[in-house]
Amino acid sequence: MKIAVVGTGYVGLVTGTCFAEVGIDVTCVDIDQRKIDNLHKGIMPIYEPGLEEMVLRNVDKGRLHFSTSLQEAIQGAEVAFIAVGTPPGEDGSADLKYVLGVAKEIGTHMNDYLVVVTKSTVPVGTSERVRKAVFEAQALRGVNIAYDVASNPEFLKEGAAIEDFLKPDRIVVGTSSKKAEETIGKLYKPFTLNGHPVIYMDIPSAEMTKYAANAMLATKISFMNDIANLCEIMGADVNLVRKGIGSDPRIGNKFIYPGVGYGGSCFPKDVKALIRTAREHGHEMRILESVEDVNDDQKMVMSKKVVRHYGEDLKGKTFAVWGLSFKPKTDDMREAPSVVIINELLKRGAQVRAYDPVAMEEAKHQLHDTIAYAKDQYDALLDADALLLITEWPEFRVPNFDVVKKLMRGTVIFDGRNQYDRHELREMGFTYYGIGLQ
Question: What stretch of H or E contains 189?
Answer without folding.
Answer: helix 178-192
